[in-house]
Amino acid sequence: MTLIARVSVITASIAFSAWLSTEPVSVVETVSGEPHKFLRTTAGFSPTDLAQLDRGEPIARVLDTDRREVAVVGAVRIKASQARLFERFRNISNLQSSDVVLQIGRFGTRPSADDLRDLQFEDYDLETIRKCRPGACGVRLSGANMDRFARDVNWNAPGWREQAASLWRQLLAADAAAYMANGTLGEYRNKGEPLDVADEFRLVFESAKYFETIAPDFFSYLKRFPSVRLDGTENIVYWSKDDINRPVTRVTHLVLYPAPAGSGRPGLIATKQIYSAHYFDAGLGLICAFDDGASGFYMLSVNRVRTRSLTSLMRGIVRTMVQRRSRDAMEGVLASTKKALEAGR
Question: Do residues 288 and 300 make contact, with C-beta atoms less than 8 angstroms apart?
Answer without folding.
Answer: yes
